[in-house]
């Protein structure tokens, strides 16, 4: 009985989430930068003594890889604002 009631009820359409994405890109870049600085300033001798200086380069690569991601997210957010302004213009007409 319950299953039949659930099947016959119309499903409401959920709107996809579309949050601003620039803060996520900036947050990721900031994390890589902070970890890199902590490793560089606090653990450089320990890393070099154990042969793990690659971690400094990994942090730099993570930060630099975030730059194209940030530019992509800036473009995405600009298009997001344009989509929302067009939708509001259509709704007000």
Jot down its keywords:
0% strand; 4 helices; elongated; single chain; mainly alpha; 93 residues
Topology:
Layout: H1 2-8, H2 22-42, H3 44-49, H4 54-92
Helix pairs in contact: 2-4
Write down the overall mean pLDDT. 89
Computed CA radius of gyration, to the nearest angstrom: 23 Å
The overall number of domains is 1
Tally of extended strands?
A: 0
For the record, give the distance between the C-alpha atoms at the N and C termini, rounded to a whole number. Answer: 45 Å
The dominant shape is elongated
Q: What ranges have pLDDT less than 50 throughout 5 or more consecutive residues?
A: none
Number of helices: 4
Strand content: under 5%
SSE order, one letter for each helix or strand: HHHH
Biggest sheet architecture? none
Q: What percentage of residues falls in helices of 4 or more residues?
A: over 70%
Output the structural class: mainly alpha
How would you briefly describe this protein structure?
The protein has four helices and no strands.
Structure description:
The chain has 93 residues and is an all-alpha fold. It has one domain. The chain has four helices and no strands. The protein has helices spanning 2-8, 22-42, 44-49, 54-92. It is elongated and about 65 Å long. 4% of the residues are buried. The mean pLDDT is 89.
């Amino acid at each position: 009985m319950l299953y039949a009631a659930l099947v016959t009820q119309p499903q409401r359409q959920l709107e996809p989430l579309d949050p601003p994405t620039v803060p996520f890109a900036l947050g990721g870049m900031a994390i890589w930068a902070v970890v890199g600085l902590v490793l560089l300033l606090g653990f450089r001798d320990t890393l070099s003594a154990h042969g793990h200086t690659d971690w400094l380069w990994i942090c730099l690569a993570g930060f630099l890889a975030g730059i194209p991601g940030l530019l992509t997210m800036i473009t995405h957010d600009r298009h997001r604002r344009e989509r929302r302004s067009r939708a509001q213009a259509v709704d007000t007409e």
